[in-house]
Amino acid sequence: MNKRQKSYLAASLAMAFLAVSVGAVAQQSAPAKPETLIKWRQSAFQVIGWNCGHIKQVLDGVYNKEEVVKSANAIAAISNLGLGSLFTTGTEQGKGWHETNAKPELFKEGSKVGEYAGNFVKEANELAKVSNSGDVAAVKSQFSKLTATCKSCHDDFRRKDS
Ligand code: HEC
Question: Own/partner pairs for 56-61, CB < 8 Å, 24+ apart?
Fold first, then answer.
């Protein structure tokens, strides 16, 4: 590579980098619309539901450690993303894939949603850990602990008709 080629390469790399960082800034400065946030949270919960269903199916049928590990890891990964950031002000009402089923109480200051979310994350991470052991009884018991956290939050903060 001669000198001219080298400086051309350096310049195009700099341009490419600039384009990437400008893109990143643009993304930051345009917060997601409420409708998008509601879609994301409904989608995240759908994927969580899918994987809980899958674990239940395996627990009720022929046990397969790898299948449980995969789904438990997926649930834990999503729980660790911070689903709370999808429940910002302005998303109390509105339509994502469908009308939100979050109750207005969820958004009130001092609501127990943070506590419920914390328990959910804790039990999801624990299930991911326990699933690696392949100990079916331990996985069953941890799975019940996890699904109990879904129920407590839904009882208080999700509309029944969903
Ligand atoms: C901290 C509270 C909380 C926890 C914990 C929680 N959920 Fe939910 N879930 C909600 C709320 C609120 C909605 C309604 C979201 C909306 O419509 O905007 C919801 C919606 C859902 C939906 C419907 C998504 C859709 O299509 O609209 C499913 C499925 C679901 N949750 C499954 C689960 C499962 C399974 C767990 C536990 C492994 C769980 N959730 C834990 C609060 C919670």
Answer: 56/143, 59/136, 59/139, 59/140, 59/143
Say if ligand 1 is within 6 A of residue 127 CB. Answer: no
At 79, list the tokens: 């729980």
Integer Cα distance of 136 and 130 in angstroms = 9
Who's near 113: CB < 8 A, 6+ residues apart? 84, 87, 106, 153, 156, 157
How many other CB atoms are found less than 10 A from the CB of residue 145? 16
Q: Whose CA is nearest to atom 39 of ligand 1?
A: 150
Q: What is the pLDDT of residues 7-50, one digit of tens each?
A: 655 555 455 544 544 445 555 557 899 999 999 999 999 999 99
pLDDT digits (tens, 9 = 90+) for 137-148: 999 999 999 999
The answer to whether the CB of 42 is under 6 A from ligand 1 is: yes
Amino acid at 126: E
Dihedral (CA of 144, 76, 114, 156) sign = negative
Closest CA to 102 of 120, 118, 83: 83
CB atoms within 10 A of CB 87: 18
